[in-house]
Specification:
By secondary structure, the protein is an alpha+beta fold. It folds into 5 domains: about 35-105, Alpha-Beta Plaits, CATH 3.30.70; about 110-220, no CATH class; about 225-310, Calcium-transporting ATPase, cytoplasmic transduction domain A, CATH 2.70.150; about 400-430 and about 550-670, 3-Layer(aba) Sandwich (Rossmann fold); about 435-550, Calcium-transporting ATPase, cytoplasmic domain N, CATH 3.40.1110. Bound molecules: adenosine-5'-diphosphate and magnesium ion.
Amino acid sequence: MSLNKFKQLNNKCTDACCSGIHNEHEADIAEPVQSGATVFSLSGLDCADCAAKLEKRIAMMKGVSAAKVNFSTSKMTVTHSVSERDIITTVQQAGYQAVRHGGKIISNPWWQQPRMLAAAASGVLLTAALIIDRAGLNAIPLYIMVMLTGGFHVAKSGFYALKSMTLDMNFLMITAALGAAAIGEWSEGATVVFLFAFGNALQAYTMDKTRSSIRSLMELAPPEALVRINGNEIRTRVEEISIGDTVIVKPGERIAVDGTVSGGSSAVNQAAITGESMPVNKQTGDSVYAGTVNTHGALEITVTRKAGDSTLAKIMHSVEEAQAQKAPMQQFVDIFAKYYTPAVILFAVLIAAVPPLFFGAEFGTWFYRALVLLVISCPCALVISTPVSIVSAIGNSSRNGVLIKGGVFMERLGQVKAVAFDKTGTLTHGRPEITDVLPFEPSFTAEKLLTLAAAVERWSEHPVAKAVTAGAADYTALPSENFIAFPGRGAKADVNGQTVYVGNARLFEESGFNTGRYDTDVSKLEEQGKTVIFIGYANTVCGAVAVADTLRHNSREAVQALRKAGISHITMLTGDNSRAAAAISSVLDTDGVYSGLLPEDKAAAVRELKSKYGTVAMIGDGVNDAPALALADIGIAMGVAGSDTALETADIALMSDELNKLPYVIKLSRKTLAVIKQNITFSIGLKVLFIAGTFFGFVNLWLAVLADMGASLIVTLNGMRLIRKI
Ligand code: ADP
Ligand code: MG
């Protein structure tokens, strides 16, 4: 896992360039482009295999030092010294379209795409030829025309593949068709060409559709915003807006930039970012994100990020990178395909040669069977089965405010046995409030105690500290210095020359205080689920303060939904005391609880869960639980919108605080795994069936092509089911 994370971070430097957004607004979101590299958007890529071949071809061009084609996102990154024009021409020669990323691919409707048109024309010609053939007339010239129209693009791609020394499907299909013609099977040869051309065009079309439907579902930020400059409101393009500018958002408008509200109040629909269906109330000081919709009030926003750095832009990059990452299952498919194709071709050669040469069998029959095998050697459906499913599933989850960083995590999530929750900030709101103030020393009033505690805590970011400072807000603050935090324990600082400690019993015991005699008072509070912290100096415990956090309304539901989804072990991890932890755990009905944990103990607890139950997912807010998140098989961060580190380091990021996204994403992963397995089984099964069938002469050429094209299409459509609601 840690290795994976490292790889991902590393990938960011190179992959960032080939990820991005392409749609009408794409030029509006700045792309971090690596120097010397150009990103191209491609269209017409119909199989992962073709992507690899195109990559090889571009990389072989003179003046190109590196090329990377990303099948899932249809992007190509090239480091080059030749002109972009030359690269685009080469891509076109290979049968695809390319434009510099940021430009717009002119995507004609299918009836205007050359490949689709050629396929359709050859279909018409084929029908005519078959009719003439039936009538007993000479249809050979027409069959030749079918092969020329339908086979032109195929042959061109096949020829270029041959030049780059790759065994290409296009080449094999043409060989099969020519072979058929050579033994007088003109109608078969022509049908092969037509079906292959048509199938490919259709496949390219569906893949482009899948990609664009995912893109359009993640709605984008507007390209312009109203900026207030010297009292005037001026429509400005987002890339010209700087941090600190004031942007006005009218009711009903989509927000164009990330920022904080500086005036007005409204409810904002954040579904595009967090997947939350209910609008969220926003007032002065609240963060808003580009791409979200302002519902009723007017908002004045102070810009906090450049358009290219917005949360939405980051999400989009992340999604595209994730879609490009290979799932482990894909690696199996790749290895299989690598050996499968040459093996079947070898088998084809043997079948053409051995029976006629050694057993006196008729050459024509076995040569024909060999041609059928050439067609069957295409692993098309198999190769496409995994990526199309992963792309769809990741598209689905990102629309629901869940970022999955790649197929690997999708696969792992499908196998999760145990789930560990961090308590504070995850199961609870992480916004505790003071409930009790207990001065132990006669000279201390509640006010004096709180003021002293707040003097230390005002330097701390911890939720408990926030509660204390809020509780002392009405009193005059005491100056303090030399603040030191003890993670999972508390903090200390110097107040009026005295070192004041604020923290839990563990901190006090370790620092030489004796808290034993307050045990009864403290345990009573803790049994109510409260967190008690002590305040003291010079070995005297001056008093204690109890704070209580509220559970998120959907925590209990989430735990139940996970159990229903078949997660056998649900645990809570917390740095809080055992009594409070037990009280909360019993409300939530978790299977286990680890309490009194220091941040590093949380990691140890995850390790223990892993050895006991297998695949473990850990959900936290990233505060104090980063090591545990990293150690878990899947680290899930929640409430990530606006936090870049959490967005980058988590394997799965829940943009909102909605814990019910968790059972959703587990279900989605399982479904994805199931679809991938169906696809792989179906494509391999079909191949086995056809190879056996060929051997016994049950399969003819056009049936083999039809099966291949049909299988690719079925597999694609099956994968595309994952875009829909789960
Ligand atoms: P959690 O696992 O609930 O997120 P932490 O590991 O952050 O908890 O903290 C564990 C415990 O340490 C808290 O419940 C609290 O008692 C104590 N603690 C940590 N930081 C502070 C602080 N700044 N002030 C007071 N108590 C603290
Ligand atoms: Mg925490």
